[in-house]
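Run log, item B.
One chain of 697 residues. Sequence copied directly from the ordering sheet:
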Amino acid sequence: MTFYLSMFVIMETLHHIIKTVMKSSFVLSLKKHSIQRFTFLFLSCFFYGLIRISAQNQSLKTYTKDNGLPSLHINNVAQDNTGYIWLASNKGLVQFNGKEFTSFTTKSGLISNHINTVFSKGNTLFIGTNKGVSIKNHHGFTNFESNNINCFLTVKNHTFLGTNKGIVRVREDYLSPLRTNFQIDLNQINDMLFDGNFYWIATNKSLWKLDKLINPEVLKRIDVNNYTSILINGKTIVATTYNDGLKFIVNEEVNTQTITTQNVTNIKKINNQFWIISEDNGIEVLDANFNFVRNINKYNTLTTNKITSAFQDNENNTWISTKDSGIYFIKSDQPVQKKPTISFKNIEVVFTSLDSIDINNYHKTLKLPADKNHLSFYYKTININNLNKLEYRYTLNNQTSPWSTKSAIDLAYLSPGNYRFAAQSRIGKTESTPIEFNFFIDTPIYKKSWFIWSGIGLASLILTLIIWFYIRRIQAKNKAKVAKLELENHLISLEQKALQLQMNPHFIFNVLNGIKALGNSGKLAELNTTISKFATLLRGVLHNSRQEEISLTEEIATLKNYIELEQQINSNTFEYSITTNLGIDAEEILIPPMLIQPFVENSIKHGISSVENGKITVNFSVKKNLLHCEIIDNGIGVYRSKEFKKISPHKSVALKVTQERIQNLSKKSAFSISELYDEGRVTGTKVVFEIPLNTDF
């Protein structure tokens, strides 16, 4: 369409020129052959120009909404290190990869959809909008509110914004307005430039020169005018004004060159030519000496005069953005054969992006835990002129993949260790510089040496403890067995001692003397009775000595024989009584033999021996599965009897042995000896003991 429109305009112009020339007196004065020569020359020039225009239009391409642009109003064009083309539109940010457009809006995280300008620093984009600035990197947008942003300047890793009210510095997490001069701080900043020594600031009122933007020492106003753009040409600062031509500043001296174009907003150097951009008069092209070359407008090339910017990409292609017709692309006749540039688009660890680091500028080794061993790498090269010729390969440590069109790779179930991942692209035989990313996957804790040795040590400790406890248990069992055996042996010893002490030699001697006395006195009936009781007692003792347990009935019978013999041979008379309150038959209750006799003997010998009308009472009862026994006498008391024992030649060990027998029968056994009192006077002794109730059923 553009080509035919240009043809129509040229033909009409040519027809008008020929008619005018033919009517001129100069042509009428020429001879016929001269007219023919002139016509041939003119037509030759015409067709040569036609061929040039045709070639130009064949390399010109227009992108509009039909191609995927969200808007026809494009304010600015930029390109990042990867090669993506970025467009600032009034309906969001647009990315172009040579085939398709991708839009980013406020829904994507932008601060505003009305974008004035876009600036690339590496693979970080600074997006100037009517509400502030958005900063985009691989993991999203960071927004800062401000006045309308018109331009950007980056110097020594510092980024400055030119706004409708002064200059603003971009900090890590906020914007810091700069205080330079109120005529700068309160005016619209259209452009900023740093020539290596000084900063040049173009405002809508003046052109300024500063040595520093922060606390400047040199601050000069070079000229008063509506300056719109600044450019460096050698040692000359070239600036555009809105309606007052070009300004050339050398050593702070300003010279003016008039141009035909009005309402100038920008100047760009493209193919060693200077393109003067007007917001409604198209583009005026000047050569290296600032001489007029041609106009680019709706009358010869484009379909509109409302131009916003011009940009030359890294392949020498030219992009022209407009307010109402989208963007024009002019493919270079002499594209630059540069090495392709590759960059990481994203790196995922177990399907989660690495948002916290700059993946294209990370020179350290990323340390990952053992379970984060699934990584995905996405890398890309953009080359507008050779989209279909791009190939990629990657290297993981020393293994390199073959070239392919695939620009992503998943690395799953990686083993622990250090890794170096590199990606590279190529166009034909021209290869890019590889990009690298180093990472380290930690060894699982259960495979680490310290864990293994700790496990071995712990297992050894546990095994040692088990063996130690086992040995302790065996030792405890053996000790318990030994203790049991010792206790049994002690009990046997006590039983033997008890049996040995059951029949006191002094008692036997007294009984025999008594029998002798009865025989001498001729008391045959008493003699027979005494001998019968003594025989019964001896037979009972001998029988019981062979038994571990006897019935309570047998114990009581033996005890009665013993007490009655003591009554006969004792010079002091005394009484006795044996009572039972058992609840069961005494024949069914089993007790160790001769358990009560030593206590009764002690009461007779030491308790009632010094009192008249002595009395001994033996009571048996059952309480809570215990056999309860009480031996009560009305003697002098246990403590006083002990005093007599100290001076007596007779030493009684039967009582002590019997006490130990009772205590060793069971843990439930109990034994006590106490004195009885009546109105503060000792009235006797009470022996009480309890043993577990044992029956023969």
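Observations after the first pass:
- Confidence is low (pLDDT under 50) at residues 1-32, 45-58, 647-651.
- DSSP finds eleven helices and 45 strands in the chain.
Flagged for discussion on Thursday.
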